[in-house]
Amino acid sequence: MARILLGVTGGISAYKAVELARLAIKAGHSVRVVQTPSATRFVGAATFEGITGAPVLGDEFEADPARGAFPGDPAPDHAPIAHLELVRRADCYAIVPASANTIAKLANGLADNLLTSAALASTAPLVVAPAMNDKMWRHPATQANVETLRLRGATIVPPGEGMLASKGEWGEGRLAEPPEVLAAIDAAIAAPTLRGVHVLVTAGGTREPIDSVRYVGNRSSGRMGFALAEEAARRGADVTVVAANVSLPRSHAIHYVDVETAAEMERATTEGFEHADVLVMAAAVADFRPSAAADTKIKKAGRDRLELDLEPTVDVLASVSAQRRPGQVLVGFAAEHGAGAVSSAREKLQRKGLDAIVVNDISRSDIGFDTDANEVTIVTAGDDQPVPFGPKAEVACAVLDVVERLRRTADIETA
Ligand code: CTP
Fold first, then answer.
1. Which of 189, 219, 253 is the last residue of a domain?
2. Are 359 and 345 spatial neighbours (Cβ–Cβ below 8 Å)?
3. I need a labelling partner for 159 at 20 to 30 A (CA). Which of 37, 298, 306, 325 fits?
């Protein structure tokens, strides 16, 4: 049972927040509601009060008859400051629906009503379920504000596509359905299962210089590695990312070490691995590099052909695996082509001494390199777990669930 503070902003989909409150209570949670002034024009406080069994607050200067207590809790003797007491007790602050205006205020730290003041004072996990017209949703200002909240650790429950409130309009912007929002709330209040655990993630693709301007590289964008790092941080881990040439937005909760080449990747990963409990090696590391990079730009004039002599790089994963301490968990990635992917990955798992390897089928263009989605198989010594097609954030959850399972097994073995 958790205490959910439900912030309701103005929008036609506010009626779905009533259903969300009902589902949350049915699931055993206790719910208090705060509304913005415009939210009360869509759904009245009486509806929420009837469902939650607690007074609804809308104004910072209004006394809370329940004195900040959630249903089932004893009310304190004194009358506390409403927005501070509600968030102090809340296990989660869910803003559903979140209008473009409220999202902009949250991103900028404005505190001009009870709902936004409470958000600023809250240290509870924040879940934001936006709902608005599709043009407002797609506006770069809204997208930037949502990204700011996400990078600060908020869970964003993206709006779906469908019929919008205004007659005849169809697009992306309708509030996610209440069961989906409740699932996101449940995930956000789940115990920080990796608190105190040092997780090292490598991401992106290395670049090996040919001369002063050219390099041998690969198509890895770093999205999968960054999704893993963000999910580990959300689970409470201390996360370091060794990022090879990644130009994606960064989270304030994560420490990043930037590298370019396989040799730099090897140095940074070996150093980070000393203090790490978990290494997830999602980076695409070059297997070969030009044996002699020119200091200046190689000229075309006077050449019919140009041959590159390549020499092998160090296999970072195999090298750190050889130095591992008991209890450290090592996860690799395997980029494999079509049939036989899993058996080839299993061979890599054994050869590199890993606990798990995440297999990508790179023959498919809709997943893997430089896309937002992935579909993988997680291979461990004991089994092969297929992870269905989905956003990289979901695949990251599945990988970290396996990491947590492997850590529990390692604990048992080292005990
Ligand atoms: N890897 C590494 N150092 C390298 C090459 C790869 O640490 N020099 C890691 C990758 O980060 C990945 C795993 O090894 O986690 C498997 O990478 P992959 O390219 O699939 O395998 P390789 O061992 O390079 O074999 P091949 O390219 O021949 O399939």
1. 189
2. yes
3. 37
| pTM summary value | 0.79
**Residue 55 beta carbon below 6 angstroms from any ligand 1 atom:** no
Coil vs helix vs strand at 24: helix
Beta bridge partners of 8: 35
Q: Based on the structure, what is the number of domains in the chain?
A: 2
Q: Which domain holds residue 258?
A: 198-414
Asked if residue 203 has its Cβ within 6 Å of ligand 1, the reply is: no
218 is catalytic: yes
The verdict on 114 and 260 lying in the same domain is no
Is 233 found in the same domain as 367?
Answer: yes
* Closest ligand 1 atom to Cα of 312: 8
Do 236 and 354 fall within a single domain? yes
Name the catalytic one among 145, 218, 245, 374: 218
Beta strands in 19-138 (DSSP E): 30-35, 92-98, 126-130
In angstroms, how far is the first alpha carbon of the chain from the final one?
Answer: 32
Q: Are residues 23 and 72 in the same domain?
A: yes
- For residue 134, give the nearest of 106, 114, 161 by alpha carbon: 161
- Confidence band of 367 (pLDDT split at 50, 70, 90): confident
Whether the CB-CB separation of 86 and 5 falls below 8 Å is answered with yes
180 and 223 together in one domain: no
The verdict on 210 and 146 lying in the same domain is: no
What CATH code is carried by the domain that includes residue 160?
3.40.50.1950
CA distance linking residue 349 with residue 358, whole number of Å: 10
Residue 119 has which token pair? 């958000």
Closest atom of ligand 1 to CA, residue 333: 15
